[in-house]
Amino acid sequence: MKKITCDACGQEIENPLPDGNYFHIEDWDVCEPCKESIELEIRPIMRGKVPFDYDWYRDLMVKSIAQRNAKLKGDVKRLR
Ligand SMILES: [Zn+2]
Alpha-carbon distance 19 to 72, whole Å? Predict the structure, then answer.
């Protein structure tokens, strides 16, 4: 079985189920808690965007995942 690791928190996702307990967004795999936390982070920014623009929203999500991933990689480097 294919193992999936969340790109935002680095945790392995057990019994990965697309759009169930993890989400594939662009090139990233994100677990459900991380997706929720990213959505919470983006929500206040989204309120200022009328009308809603899905591509723009997607872009914000991807940027936030990339930021978390960079931080994650930095942390790993520091531990070595
Ligand atoms: Zn995660």
Answer: 23
| pLDDT, position 56 | 92
* Ligand 1 center from residue 55 Cα (angstroms): 22
Distance 47 CA to ligand 1 centre (A): 24
pTM for the full predicted model: 0.84
The residue type at 75: D
The number of distinct structural domains making up the chain is 1
Range of the structural domain that residue 51 is part of: 4-79
Distance 34 CA to ligand 1 centre (A): 4
